[in-house]
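About this split. The held-out portion is used to measure sequence recovery: a designer receives only the C-alpha cells and must propose an amino acid at every position. Recovery is the fraction of positions where the proposal matches the reference. Here is one held-out target exactly as it appears in the evaluation file.
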C-alpha cells in the first residue's frame, strides 16, 4: 500500500496529508446550543480516538456556542457552514481550527473571497465538501463520478483563483461504487488531501460493511488522508469502527487488534468465545495501550496457539473448565475459564511497561 503523496494542511494540532498518519474524524449529533452536552460528548469522542470533531453551525447563536465549546475541549474542531458566509467568517474568528463549506451554495464569489481572506488571516484550512447536492443538475441527472469530480474542480478553482491552497476535499455519495470512482479520479488529478467515507451510509451492519469497503478500497490504493464512518446513531461507534478499519489495514500506530475464531464443535460450551472477546476488547479500550498488540481468543488448541501463533497473547479453549494462556505460539499455563480474562489482562498490563 503505497500512499499517494499529497499536500499537507494543519488544523489546530492535527496534520492532514503528506506523511501524517491517517486520522479519524466524526461529527456531533446534538444541537450545538446544548453546550455542556457537546463538551461532554467531544471529550468522550476524543477518548475513543477521534482526532477532529465537526459541529454544525447554522446561525449566530451557534457561533457563540461553538466558541464556548472550543475553549473547553482539547481537540481540533471544524465548523460546518452552509449558505451564510458571515457564519464562516465568525466561526473562524471564534476559534475554528478548520471550516467546511460548499463554495457552490455561497451566494456570490465576493462572499467566498471574504471567507478566504479571513481564513488566510487566521491560517485556517478550508474543507470543500462535495456530494450529490453539489453537482450541476442542468448537466448531470445523477451524481456520477465525473459529475462529482467536475463539481470539486469548480470549487477548488474558486479558492485557487484567490491564491488559497490550504484545502482538504471530501467527495461522498451514498453510492459505494460512485464514491470510490470519484475519489480515484480526483486523486489522479490533484494532490490535495482527501477526507474519505460514504455519506448517508445508514446504520448497523449495512453501514459498517459499506463504509469499510469504500474506505478500505481507497486506502488500499493509497488514497485518503482522514476518514469518517457516517453512521446513524452514536458517533462514538463511528470512531470505534473507523479505528478498527485502520487497525485492520495496519495503518494505526497503536492499539489492540483482537482476532477470534467462529468456533466449532471442539469448543468447550463453558468457554464463551464471543463474550470473552467482547470483555477483552472493552478492558483493552480502558487501558489506552501505547503500543500495538495482537490478541487471540480462540475456541480450541487447534486454532490457538497453532493458527494464532503470531498473536502476542491469547486464550485458547481447553477442557474440564480450563483454557490455555499463550504468547507468540508458546503455551504459558492453564487457567480457569472464569479467571482467564483477568490472567490475560495481567499479562497485558505488564507488557504496557516493557
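Reference sequence for scoring:
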Amino acid at each position: 500500500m503505497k500512499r499517494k503523496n499529497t499536500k499537507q494542511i494543519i488544523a489546530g494540532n492535527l496534520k492532514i496529508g503528506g506523511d501524517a498518519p491517517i486520522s479519524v474524524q466524526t461529527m456531533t449529533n446534538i444541537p450545538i446550543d446544548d453546550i455542556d452536552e457537546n463538551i461532554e460528548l467531544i471529550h468522550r469522542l476524543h477518548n475513543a480516538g477521534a482526532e477532529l470533531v465537526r459541529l454544525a453551525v447554522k446561525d449566530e447563536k451557534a457561533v457563540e456556542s461553538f466558541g464556548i465549546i472550543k475553549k473547553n475541549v482539547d481537540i481540533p474542531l471544524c465548523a460546518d457552514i452552509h449558505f451564510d458566509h458571515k457564519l464562516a467568517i465568525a466561526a473562524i474568528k471564534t476559534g475554528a481550527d478548520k471550516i467546511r463549506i460548499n463554495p457552490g451554495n455561497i451566494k456570490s464569489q465576493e462572499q467566498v473571497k471574504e471567507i478566504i481572506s479571513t481564513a488566510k488571516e487566521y491560517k485556517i484550512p478550508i474543507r470543500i465538501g462535495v456530494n450529490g447536492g453539489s453537482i450541476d443538475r442542468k448537466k448531470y441527472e445523477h451524481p456520477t463520478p465525473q459529475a462529482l469530480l467536475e463539481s470539486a474542480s469548480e470549487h477548488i478553482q474558486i479558492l485557487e483563483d484567490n491564491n488559497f491552497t490550504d484545502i482538504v476535499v471530501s467527495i461522498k455519495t451514498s453510492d459505494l461504487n460512485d464514491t470510490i470512482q470519484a475519489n480515484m479520479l480526483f486523486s489522479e488529478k490533484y494532490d490535495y488531501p482527501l477526507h474519505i467515507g460514504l455519506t448517508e451510509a445508514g446504520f448497523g451492519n449495512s453501514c459498517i460493511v459499506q463504509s469499510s469497503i469504500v474506505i478500505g478500497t481507497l486506502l488500499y490504493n493509497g488514497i485518503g488522508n482522514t476518514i469518517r464512518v457516517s453512521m446513524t446513531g452514536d458517533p462514538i461507534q463511528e470512531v470505534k469502527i473507523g479505528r478498527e478499519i485502520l487497525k485492520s489495514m495496519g495503518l494505526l500506530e497503536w492499539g489492540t487488534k483482537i482476532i477470534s475464531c467462529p468456533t466449532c464443535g471442539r469448543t468447550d460450551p463453558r468457554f464463551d468465545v464471543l463474550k470473552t472477546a467482547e470483555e477483552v476488547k472493552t478492558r483493552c479500550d480502558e487501558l489506552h495501550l501505547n503500543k500495538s498488540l495482537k490478541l487471540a481468543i480462540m475456541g480450541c488448541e487447534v486454532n490457538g496457539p497453532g493458527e494464532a501463533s503470531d498473536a502476542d497473547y491469547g486464550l485458547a479453549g481447553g477442557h474440564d473448565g480450563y483454557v490455555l494462556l499463550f504468547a507468540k505460539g508458546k503455551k504459558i499455563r492453564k487457567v480457569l475459564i472464569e479467571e482467564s480474562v483477568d490472567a490475560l489482562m495481567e499479562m497485558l498490563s505488564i507488557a504496557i511497561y516493557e
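Annotator remark: The longest strand covers residues 292-298.
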